[in-house]
Write a structure and sequence with these properties.
- With 280 residues, this protein is of the alpha+beta class.
- It folds into 2 domains: 138 residues, Oxidoreductase, molybdopterin-binding domain (Sulfite Oxidase, Chain A, domain 2), CATH 3.90.420.10; 103 residues, Immunoglobulin-like (Sandwich), CATH 2.60.40.420.
- The chain is 26% helix and 19% strand.
- It has 9 helices and 9 strands.
- Strands 2-1-9-5-6 form a 5-stranded mixed sheet.
- A hairpin with a 4-residue loop joins strand 5 and strand 6.
- The longest helix has 14 residues.
- Bound molecules: heme C (HEC).
- Heme C binds next to helix 8.
Length: 280
């Protein structure tokens, strides 16, 4: 027997449906879109579509990087999704986030079966994740998380959240040769190791000589290089924990402890930055 709503209830429901999207803090759970890009082609996938896939599953992530605690997410194996769309385990995958964060990650690291497993966590608009800060947004709509991590873990910069685009590109130095130290430097020069440290930890937010896709932090060589205007002890302190040098509510740079960047890597990173002073 069909259930009929009294007219007043119907009218109220209609009014609510019309007003709901305009009420502050109320979302009707709009579907989010992630773009996959390669070879000049683009695929747009919706969170609803991804959540309905057969391989979408509930995973647990102990000590999650974005939330800094144990988390559970609905997620799908990113490897499968990308291979289906013609991505290859060569070059770089660029993860572009809504806030301007742009993490280049070795495609092989994501697409090879061996090693840590990459999962694309997908936020269900009907059941949003917790916010990252009290007034802030969540890590959604899409977040890269890892399982079966190696000892020492997958670097924190390889956990991009609020992902909008995943694109297959060349390695950063092939797209932006201006970020390379002078090719006349011998291979054993620490600046080369420092360059690798920079690519893994810093380039997601900082350009060098205008090269790179990140736009959250300042260019680290132009117009001046921090090794020119910071003393070395304070620069090291800032990299380890920016709030130890200066602190304000809007600060966005994360710190890098000795587990993220060893003392030797930090020396090498400084050597790279210094070497870039003569490479503008
Ligand atoms: C998530 C983004 C992010 C990452 C990753 C990041 N930074 Fe930053 N960095 C910033 C932002 C944003 C600022 C501006 C100050 C702030 O908001 O904290 C900044 C400021 C700085 C400054 C001070 C520049 C100045 O002139 O005041 C230096 C030096 C610096 N970063 C170096 C690095 C190095 C080296 C790395 C890698 C080990 C790195 N940053 C990684 C976002 C980032």
């Amino acid at each position: 027997m069909p259930v009929t709503m009294p007219f007043a209830t119907k009218a109220f429901a209609l009014l609510l449906a019309v007003l709901l999207p305009f009420l502050p803090g109320v979302s009707l759970g709009a579907d989010a879109i992630i773009k996959l890009k390669r070879d000049g082609q683009e695929w747009r996938l919706s969170s609803a579509h991804l959540l309905q896939r057969n391989d979408a599953t509930e995973i647990s992530v102990p000590a999650d990087v974005a939330y800094r605690r144990d988390m559970r997410f609905r997620a799908l194996p990113l490897r499968t999704l990308l291979l289906e769309n013609g991505f290859v385990a060569q070059g770089t995958l660029n993860f572009l986030a809504l806030d301007g964060y742009a993490a280049p990650i070795d495609a092989a690291q994501v697409l090879n079966e061996a090693g840590a497993q990459a999962w694309l966590a997908v936020e269900d608009p009907a059941q949003p994740w917790p916010t990252l800060s009290p007034e802030g947004a969540t890590a959604g709509p899409f977040y890269l998380v890892w399982q079966q991590q190696p000892a020492g873990g997958v670097p924190q910069e390889h956990w991009p959240y609020q992902i909008a685009v995943i694109e297959q590109t060349l390695a950063p130095e092939q797209r932006y040769p201006m970020i390379l130290p002078s090719l006349t430097l011998p291979k054993h020069n620490p600046a080369w190791q420092g360059f690798a440290v920079f690519k893994e930890n810093c380039i997601a937010c900082h350009k060098i000589n205008g090269g790179g896709d990140g736009v959250l932090g300042p260019d680290l060589n132009v117009p001046h290089n921090p090794t020119e205007y910071f003393t070395e002890p304070f620069l090291k302190k800032l990299i380890r924990n920016p709030a130890q040098v200066r602190s304000w509510p809007g600060a966005k740079m994360p710190g890098f402890d000795a587990e993220a960047i060893s003392d030797e890597e930090l020396e090498a990173l400084i050597a790279y930055l210094k070497a870039m002073r003569t490479q503008r």
